[in-house]
Design brief:
Layout: E1 7-11, H1 16-27, E2 36-38, H2 39-42, H3 52-57, E3 60-63, E4 69-71, H4 73-83, H5 88-91, H6 94-108, H7 111-114, H8 130-152, H9 166-185, H10 190-214, H11 222-246, H12 252-271
Parallel strand pairs: 1-2
Antiparallel strand pairs: 1-3, 3-4
Length: 272
Amino acid sequence: MKTLAGYTILYDAECPMCDIYSRAFIATGMLDKNGRAPYQQVLAGACPLVDRQRAVNEIALVNTQTGEVNYGIKSLFKVIGNAFPVFGPLFGFRPFIWLMSKVYAFISYNRKVIIPAKVDENAIQPTFSLFYRLLYLALTSLTVGFILTHYAGHLSPLVAIGKPYREYMICSGQVLFQGIIVSLYKPAKRWDYLGNMMSISFGGALLLLPMLLLGKFVAVAPFINMLWFLAVAGLMFLEHIRRTKLLSLGWLLTVTWMAYRVALLFLILYLN
């Protein structure tokens, strides 16, 4: 594997995802041993080669000899394309670059809510994009609703099978309900909280997939599926507590988050 020598990638030290893939570049030899540095340190001093805010929004790859700087998806394409030249034509295909730049922006602008970490409020932070946050909330809500709709069939007759849109309404209703609560309680944390909340829901939905897959091959009793569902709900509850602490939010949002779920569960069982 060919190493892209003489380049340094500026990653977000507060972003676990950024730390992982930049470490992977070093570990696999795609960048040399000194080929990464946290932008929090580099941008703290004089660095005329790099657009400070853009480097925070989009990972920067700096040629330490010429001063050339690539940002975002082009940085990743340069590193990966150097290691795997076979991808060169694809990485030079403009429609593909455009599409992947949108995917990259979607992940980058939501990275703080996908995998959160303690944030230094005094450090320079990524620009907030309402468009990408709303898109994230919409896509995660639809995905969670889709998975829950299929999982609900495996809980019958313990839980009534509702209309095809029931789980979608539950997910969107939760965003609306908690959005109102957090707007009244901590409006400045509204979009951070909602993004984290839907990341928890999305992660919980993914944990249901193994049981759905298992159900394709063997008959799993509804009681077992219900126990798995409750175990996932318990993990989600613990993760909600952890994330609200990272956001410096109190117990109110955790209480209302759980109350919403309990109320819906009782309502569904009552209608059954």
